Amino acid sequence: MPRTTFKELLDAGVHFGHLKRKWNPSMAPYIFMERNGIHIIDLEKTITKLDEAASAMKHIAKSGKKVLFVATKKQAKEIVAEKVKKVNMPYVTERWPGGMLTNFPTIRKAVKKMGSIDKMATDGTFQNMSKREKLQVTRQRAKLEKNLGSIVDLTRLPSALFVVDVCKEHIAVREAKRLGIPVFAMVDTNSDPTDIEFPIPANDDASKSISLIVEILCQSIEEGLNERKMEKDKEQGPKDRKVIRKELETKDIPAALIEAIVEDEEEEETGTDDETVAVEPDDEDSARTGVETEEEL
Fold it and tell me: 38 in helix, strand or coil?
């Protein structure tokens, strides 16, 4: 079942492309027609490509990996930051730091610098600094927070990249391609989709269009995370008994009683009952006959 409808995409203005003279010939398969000098995107193909991208993102999230969202356009910054925060994925809405992917260890050092500054504020180091030094360190912390604060939890290279505007974020796309990281992207009629593994033909300038596409992808990520959590909860059954045993051992409970408690927990989980009586074949036939007699009555 599609994750969105033709009408929703139409109402959000996803179908509006750029002027005909600005088009990229590689986008020809995704263009429906031209009206008043403006290309119109084929929304049927948008629905198909969006479903493919959403399914892939759900699989990535379910496997416990990260998707890095990149949107430095003015009209996309707040939208992406607001929606991506809810699914705990990293994002970049300020200037893309060159080498963020290809020189990831250096970026991680800068992120760790924020932690060291925070530690200085708590361990009393700030008290031994002059007023000017405090001001410099505070400004440095604020700058790092602005540019890298949203990727604090990104401890390793992301498994995928989502880009709102391929033309504006060409450096990010180039770095991802160099490292073999798959790219999801909104591609407008002036974009080149050839280097994008999961292109989503859509208007990448209108805030409503951006909001709708990002919302659908974030919902798919949330679905993947929920399924991952459910699978983990199922697997934690045997581990829970170990935790119970350890907790009981700390309370000076006799070993025999601990084993009895743990066995009771196992019986409750498996649904076994020692008082269950096996039915003999003759009894079973008579019981079955009795049921039939009751039904006839």
Answer: strand
- The runs of H, that is alpha helices, within 86-206 are 104-122, 131-148, 170-179
Distance separating alpha carbons of residues 138 and 119, to the nearest angstrom: 13
- Measured CA to CA, the distance from residue 12 to residue 210 in angstroms comes to 9
| pLDDT at site 267 | 55
Q: Residue 162: its pLDDT value, please? A: 96
Helices (H), 188-280: 207-235, 237-249, 255-270
Domain positions in the chain are 6-101+157-234, 237-296
pLDDT at 258: 57
Q: Which residues pair with 33 in a beta bridge?
A: 40
The residues near 194 (Cβ < 8 Å, ≥ 6 apart) are 26
Lookup result for tokens 């208007």: 203
Residues of the chain with pLDDT under 70: 1-2, 236-297
One-letter identity of residue 166: V
Q: How far apart are CA 101 and CA 157, in angstroms?
A: 7
- For the CA atoms of 7, 8, 11, 12, the dihedral, rounded to the nearest 10 degrees, stands at -150
What is the homologous superfamily of the domain 6-101+157-234 according to CATH?
Glucose-6-phosphate isomerase like protein; domain 1 (3.40.50.10490)
Greatest Cα-to-Cα distance within the chain, rounded to the nearest angstrom: 97
Distances (CA, A) of 165 to 55, 74, 154, 187, 293: 21, 11, 22, 7, 74
